[in-house]
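# step 3/5: fold
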Amino acid sequence: MENKSQFKIVIVIGTRAEFIKTFPVMLEFQRRKVPYYFIHTGQHNLGELCEIFSVKKPDTVLTPEPGESSKFNTRQGKAILWNLKLVWRIRKELKTLKNLKYVLYHGDTMTTASAAIASSRLMNPFKRYKNVHLEAGLRSWDNFEPFPEEISRRIVGRFSDILFAPSEESKTNLRKLKKKKILVFGNTIVDSAYYALDLAKKKKIKPLAEGKFALVTVHRHENLKNKKRMEKIVDILLSVEIPTYFAAHDNTLKKLKDFGLLNRLKENRNIKLIKPQDYVNFIYQISKCSLIICDGGSMQEESLIFGKPCVILRNSTERPEGLKTNFQFLTKLDVNGSREKIHEYLSRGFKVGKYSNPYGKRGLTKKIVDVLIK
C-alpha cells in the first residue's frame, strides 16, 4: 500500500489547459525531488501529455476520462451534477493525506472551482494546510464573457488562501479580498511555451506554410451558441488574404454546420480547416505564424510571449495587458474594424513595438516553487 504520509503537496488537474500551465511546476518539484500527489479529476482526456512533458502519471483519477475531448461539450446539466459530486470526491481524497501543507490548482475550470471549495476552510474548518490558486485575479468583469469561467474565478478567489497572480493588473483585481497572500511572479505559460518550443525544435517540426500564414481557433461557449456572432466571426476570417489554418474542434465544426456557415469557410481558397494540434506542434506554429485570430485566453498570452499580432474574437477579455501593446486587438466582433486591423497587421510597414511581457520571463516557475517548499 502506498505511503501517503510522504506527500505534503497535492496538485489537482482536470483539463488539458490546466495541465499545460501546471506541468512546469510539476517538473520543478521533480527536479528538486519533492514528492507531490497528482489528482486527475477526469474532466478531459490527458492522453499522452504526461509522457510528452516528462511528468509522472496521476496518483489517482477520480472519474473515468472521456473518449472525446471533453465530458461536457453539450451536456450542461450533466456537467453541473458532475461538478457537485466532484467537490466531495476531492475532499474525500484529501482526507487520506494526513501531512498536507498545500493543495494546488490552476485557472478557472469546473475542476478548479471544485478543488478550491473542497480544500477550503468551509469544507475543512480545522484544516492546517493552505490551498493555492495558480493564475489568480483574471477578471473581465462580465459574468457572461466568458461564461462560466468568470464566475469560477470569483469563487476560487474567495475560497483560496494563497493567490499567485500572473501580472500586476491581476493582483489589483484581488485587492478587495482580505487576509489573502497575493504574490506576483508571472504566468507559468511562459515556461510551458518555451519548453514546448524546445521539444518542437528537437522533433524538427515544419511550419504549416512557407512565408506568411495565420492561425485560428474558435471555441468559446458564448460564441458557439450564438449564430449572429458566428456569422460575424466567419466574415472576419474571410477577410484574411494569406494562408489561414483553422484548428477546429468537433463542437466548433458542428456549430458551423448547424448555422450554415461551414461551406463558406471551405469554399474560401485561403482557409484550411485542420484538426486541433498537440501543444508542442501548435506552439511551434505560433512561433512561426504572422497572425493569430482567436477567442481563447492562452493564445493571447502566447501572442505576447512570441510577439505575434493577435485579433481577439470577443467583446471583453480578462487579459487586458496585451491591449496596451500595438499588436493585440479586441474586436468586440466589429467586422469592419477587424478587417482594417488585420490589413494593418499584415501590411509591409507594420512592426511590433517594443514591450515588456507583463507575464514575466522564462524561469519564473522556480520562484513559485521556492515559496511552496521553503
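# step 4/5: annotate
Residues 206 and 285 are 8 Å apart (CA to CA).
# step 5/5: archive (pending)
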